[in-house]
Specification:
Elements: H1 16-25, H2 27-43, H3 47-70, H4 78-94, H5 97-102, H6 107-118, H7 134-151, H8 154-160, H9 183-208, H10 212-223, H11 240-253, H12 257-264, H13 268-275, H14 277-297, H15 303-318, H16 331-343, H17 356-372, E1 384-385, E2 388-389, H18 392-418, H19 423-434, H20 450-464, H21 468-474, H22 476-479
Length: 483
């Protein structure tokens, strides 16, 4: 006899006590997120900012101490691991708020800035940033650096431990058991890669930027594909060389970090496959050709304008969010950047968006559908990416993420339209938030309505957490067993 609840009758619920224990166990990680800017503030003698960060730091250290007393669950379920990750993101969205208020932001704007930072988005409410102390820029850059990898990718592995949950968060690309021996060793190797990219970025940008401080904080944002910059015009007032190198760093970080692990191991073929170099190059080159074509057809054929438009397009594709000039207002160009933001970078990278891996799989699904219309009914055809067969679980997860993305974009866009915002600009900023990009078409700012700020905060969290994680954590069925 079929159970009245069907497949749901076999589902597990999250145990709040286990989730709490897991969150406490990551008190040290949360402490590291606020400790670095706290030390920077102390070094500058910015005592009010230091005090605003010292309070959250103390809470995190108390959590780490409490974890030693209560222990860590050794049977953490997959659903509890995901809820723990969501809880960490939400906590890290709140902890920096007092410090951002000290820097001059209103409470709602400070919360928006913190969410934008930890989700490595880059949409901002901040004004007068050139007058901020260096520690204020370290706070924003370090938040983005932490959210870009240490929490979004390594955090999943550290929470879950070995098991199928490792790949749950958007096919994070770190479940390659053939080269990495354990979940924690995976986290260490990927952190080494991430740190190496960061050091290279700092080394390059310190040489190209007017001062080492600006070079360091922009490097943190670039490696995390975050987009926060010390100056209100983003990268526009820096040299052309600095702009180009920053974009190259962003593109390098939008490739799956696991590809660099293979590269270090000198497995060139595996590195090429995991980087999806062909797909990325195809999308980028196609987009650049269309950008040039649109600009030429609309009467903007000058070299500097085309160069700026190309760099802004690549920033959207990498989901970095930097801009080298104001966005060209041509609807055709804005639409191209919007599509680039929607696609985003690779799975297992710091980039956002639907992810190019999923786009490639969906293209393969289209090819297979057309093929099946041309072959005899008894012919055996399978969905493949290269020489690898795509399993049904992956197709289901892709469909779920794309559906959540489309539904969220539509719902948030409607809210903007009902609030009297321009249609194309509103859709652009909604997609920018959902894909954790940070480029704005001038809709987002400190003067926008409060409810629209909360809409964009929800969009940033949904996008960074791959939709399903946040929806799962907020679902009553996750915590309460239905009878």
């Amino acid at each position: 006899m079929r159970h009245p609840r069907g497949q749901a009758s076999t589902s597990w619920q999250a145990r709040p006590s286990c989730v709490l224990q897991a969150v406490l166990a990551h008190g040290g990680i949360m402490a590291a997120v606020v400790a670095v800017p706290c030390l920077a503030a102390a070094a500058e003698a910015e005592w009010s900012l230091c005090a605003a960060l010292a309070g959250p730091l103390a809470l995190c250290l108390v959590a780490a101490w409490a974890s030693r007393r209560v222990g860590v669950p050794d049977d953490l379920r997959e659903i509890e691991a995901i809820c723990t990750l969501v809880a960490l993101f939400l906590l890290l969205s709140v902890l920096p708020v007092p410090a951002l208020i000290v820097l001059g932001l209103a409470p709602t704007d400070a919360l928006f800035e913190a969410v934008s930072g930890i989700t490595s988005t880059g949409l901002t409410m901040a004004r007068g940033t050139p007058d901020w102390p260096f520690a204020g820029h370290v706070l924003r850059g370090w938040l983005q650096w932490s959210g870009g990898f240490a929490i979004a990718v390594a955090g999943v592995m550290l929470i879950v431990g070995p098991g199928r949950a490792v790949g749950t968060m958007g096919d994070a690309g770190v479940a390659d058991r053939d080269i990495l021996q354990s979940t924690r060793s995976q986290a260490r190797e990927l952190l080494v890669v991430y740190a190496a990219l960061t050091l290279i970025a700092i080394g390059l940008l310190v040489l190209l930027m007017p001062g080492w401080k600006e070079g360091a904080v922009i490097a943190l944002s670039a490696v995390s594909t975050g987009g926060f910059a010390p100056r209100p015009d983003s990268l526009a007032s820096y040299s052309k060389a600095a702009q180009a190198v920053t974009m190259l760093i962003c593109l390098a970080s939008s490739v799956s970090l696991i590809a660099y692990v293979y590269l270090i191991r000198r497995d060139w073929r595996a590195a090429l496959d995991h980087s999806l170099a062909r797909g990325v190059a195809g999308v980028a080159l196609s987009g650049l050709v269309l950008v040039v074509l649109v600009l030429v057809l609309t009467g903007r054929p000058t070299g500097p304008e085309i160069r700026d438009a190309i760099l802004n397009f690549l920033s959207g594709l990498s989901t970095a969010g930097f801009t080298v000039a104001p966005l060209d207002p041509t609807p055709g160009y804005l639409a191209l950047v919007l599509v680039a933001m929607l696609i985003g970078g690779g799975v297992g990278s710091t980039a956002g968006g639907i992810k190019i891996n999923r786009v490639i799989t969906m293209a393969a699904m289209l090819r297979l559908t057309l093929l099946r219309l041309r072959v005899p009914p008894r012919a055996v055809t399978t969905l493949r990416e290269g020489h690898t067969r795509v399993h049904a679980d992956r197709v289901i997860s892709i469909a779920a993420v794309v559906l959540c993305y489309a539904a969220s974009a539509l719902a948030f866009w409607i809210v903007f339209l009902l609030s009297g915002q321009p249609p194309l600009s509103s859709l652009f900023d909604v997609v920018s938030a959902l894909s954790t990009v940070g480029i704005t078409s001038s809709v987002t700012g400190a003067e926008m309505a409060t409810h629209l700020k909360f809409v964009l905060m929800a969009a940033m969290l949904l996008g960074r957490l791959e939709f399903l994680a946040l929806l799962l954590a907020l679902s009553p069925g996750t915590w309460i067993e239905r009878r």
